[in-house]
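Bug report

Summary: structure tokens for HTH lacI-type domain-containing protein differ between web form and batch submission.
Environment: batch mode, default settings.
Steps: 1) Submit the sequence below via batch. 2) Compare with the web form result.

Sequence submitted:
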Amino acid sequence: MIIREIAEQAGVSMTTVYNVLHGNVKKVSKENTKKIQKLLDEYHYVPKLGLRALKNNSSKIIGVVIHSSRYYENSAISDTFYSHIIGAMEEMLRKAGYYMMLYAAQNLEEIFHMALAWNVDGLIAITFTYRDYIKLKTLVNKPIVAIDLINKENSDYVNVGLQDKKGGYIMTKYLLEKGYESVYVCARKNIGVDHERWLGYREAWKEAGKEFLSNDFLCLYETEQRRNENYKMMSRFAGKKTAFFFLADAFAVEAMHYFHDLGIKIPEDIGIAGFDGNILGKYCYPRLTTVYQDVSEKGRMAVKLMIDLLEKRLLDGLDVSRPVTLIPGHST
């Protein structure tokens, strides 16, 4: 044990070494403090997080909990949306002297249980409903920053969101101006941010003076094998001036691949649009028309707000709405 070795070499007790580690040097002579610190440096000793917590009354850990509202064939982290946010948050937390703990699950009770077990300074909660956010906040009694908070009822939260409704509006308006007579929205479920994007779609449709299509929101199945049934149905619209607006680039690229295997040309036979602006759409062929959001900046903003909360520069009651941008590609 390195603490024992340092104590033996310095000719002091282990308690004296711990006092120096914790900064409690009033009871330690200057000579012993200098001797112990020199040995700590020689051994390249790094205090454990628990020791830092004793010294600073802080674990220096921020928990990140993800309520993955849809099924993932691999894991939620394989989704480029989550992986970019997590990468940006980890980097910024590290630079600020914090560590990150991560847990993702579909089951909210599992998340609540895990959050209660952690010794963290605060939590960043991703894709939670307002009520679940408030429940989590009440349970842990720690600062919480949300990303993409859903179904907001009051203003007693801190959230980093997106202009989701505007994103749905600008893409639909663009597709109608391109001459498509039918545009369908495609996503897993018509809830949360996807519902907001669908509302923007409807606003653009209404503004254009068109009657709403029946079944204008197409719910996609959970697995790729089942989604092929969705894409088979969509293939019947080939050559009928129809575009499909997927609310995630990953689904849009997956559909393009399926249509390519059927010999359906994009965009000549069917128009395809996405949402997110991630690397999948950038490098697929033809390049995807999409609504871009800076996902990494969402993560960095959440960390900044968390540190502001911890350092008492911010109170609850802030909703940041990040901008969106239409990126025209060659898939429409």
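Above is the batch result. After comparison, the two runs are identical; trailing whitespace caused the diff. The chain has a mean pLDDT of 90. The first strand starts at residue 61 and ends at 67.
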